[in-house]
Amino acid sequence: MMNKRLERILAKLDATYGTEKIIYLEYNTPWQLLFATILSAQCTDARVNMVTRDLYKKYDSLEKFADASLSEMEKDIHSIGFYHNKAKNLIACARKLLTDFGGEVPSSLDDLLTLPGVGRKTANVIRGNIFNIPSIVVDTHVKRITKKLGFTESDDPVKIEFELMEILPKDHWIVWNTDLITLGRTICIARREKCDICFLREDCPSAKV
Fold first, then answer.
1. Which Pfam families does the record cross-reference, listed alphabetically (predicted)?
2. Which of 23, 131, 172, 205 is exposed most, by the fewest CB atoms within 10 A?
3. Which residue in the list 12, 88, 96, 139 is annotated as catalytic?
């Protein structure tokens, strides 16, 4: 049975943000979302979208990514943090998708985790948004706000993911991420929370009011 406080929080999130899945990264194909998510690690979605608009015109197929020059790919994504590793991973990931998965993005968590540059967060983004498989994505917003709301004491994203799986209804697994991203960008901003205007303040043990 769901915790009453959590039930109120989910109802308020639903009422404020709706229940539709929202993805802030721009893409047209599953592999484009996969690559954009790889690029988004420790980088803003806005920056990634600026880069991928040109990147996906230049490399409009997995084959072009797989055949790309590493040095040229680094130049193409140099404005994104950790571009050396990310360039290498994009090329290697494209090659593995072509050789091992027939050019299709797999839906299995185990298969996704074999792809270069893909961890649980990226895999769950794909599973939740492309394949509609209930998945919990733990990014910096989810980690920070879940802790503030008192639903975890951990800083380990994997532990938080499994803790949330225990308490959240499956139909809220993927939207917990998008709701907390929106909340974290607009109200519960790191180091300058606007607790006085937060619609969750009455149910948040960390509220400064």
1. EndIII_4Fe-2S (PF10576), HHH (PF00633), HhH-GPD (PF00730)
2. 205
3. 139
The response to whether 43 counts as a known ligand-binding position is: no
Residue 179 falls in the annotated catalytic set: no
**AA letter at 180:** L
Name 165's Cβ contacts closer than 8 Å, sequence gap at least 6. Answer: 136, 173
DSSP one-letter code for 151: S
199: its two tokens: 């619609």
CATH of 4-21+136-203, one of 3.40.50.300, 3.30.300.30, 1.10.357.10, 1.10.1670.10: 1.10.1670.10
Q: Determine the pLDDT at residue 209.
A: 64
Q: What is the pLDDT of residue 2?
A: 65
Q: Which of 121, 143, 148, 179 is catalytic?
A: 121
Residues of the chain with CATH 1.10.1670.10: 4-21+136-203
In this structure, the number of other CB atoms found within 10 A of the CB of residue 4 comes to 9
Instruction: Round to whole Å and give the CA distance between 143 and 161.
Output: 9
| Residue limits of CATH 1.10.340.30 in the chain | 30-129
Does 188 show up as a binding residue in the annotation? yes
CATH fold of 30-129:
Endonuclease III; domain 1 (1.10.340)
**Residue 208: predicted pLDDT:** 79
pTM of the model: 0.90
Mean pLDDT by runs of 10 across the 209 residues of the chain is: 87 94 93 97 93 98 98 96 96 98 98 97 96 95 96 95 96 94 94 94 89
